[in-house]
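Journal club prep — side note

Before the paper discussion, L.F. wants everyone to see what a predicted structure for a comparable chain looks like in token form. Sequence:
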Amino acid sequence: MPPYGEAGRDFVNHEKHLLAHAKTQRQKMPDAERELWYHLRNRRLGGYKFRRQEPIGTYIADFICHQPKLVVEADGSQHLERATYDATRTRYLESCDYSVLRFWNHDILQHTDAVLETILRKLEELDGR
């Protein structure tokens, strides 16, 4: 039997649920994610294309740049209690050949330029520039 039930039907249902959840997250972005998205969207950061709230496997990446492979996560206080989950999630994303950068919401809002500089440096490093 396939891992996701009869003819993959359970996988398809899971994928639809994940896509719906990602859409909801895009509509209800916290202030820090909204601020970061303003600077990442429309290739504003070094010409790199980012997508927001995009499913990858069973997870939803806050921001993802497919070329080069970088995931940027904005972490709020709820992540203090989810350290094990976040570590597992990061290992999964890295197993898919993505690098992962995490920033606290406070840093995104209070030190936006430094956060953007860190992201751009990582992108250029991954891109071989």
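L.F.'s comment for the group: The mean pLDDT is 84. Keep this in mind when we get to the figures.
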